[in-house]
Prior knowledge:
Order of helices and strands: HEHEHEHE
Oligomer: single chain
Strand content: 5-15%
CATH architecture of the domain at 11-80: 3-Layer(aba) Sandwich
Amino acid sequence: MPERGDRPRLQHEVDLEHALVVGAQQTVDAVFACSELMASGALRVLQAAGRSVPVDVSLVGFDDVAIATASNAPLTTVRQPLEEMGRTAAEAVLARVRGEQVPAEHILPTTLIRRESL
């Protein structure tokens, strides 16, 4: 794989590159990354390996931050309700400060945002 200039290679890029080199290149048809940063790194590795997103490989990220729309194949992503997450966390902290019981977990809905990488 070609070097990427002065930018340090991230571990997820090395891992995906290794998977493509050791024979999975023809069997990898989708990648789900746990963040947009990881998805953008995966996109670079896939393109360097000659794989086309989304023709050869579907790529989905997570978070729906600005980088998702900035890539040359705008990323399909899972959007989290960040404002609601912050509000829920703040309310839980305040409830704990008041000595109230709070649930151990609070599940919030996510939304699939379909773009060009799927």
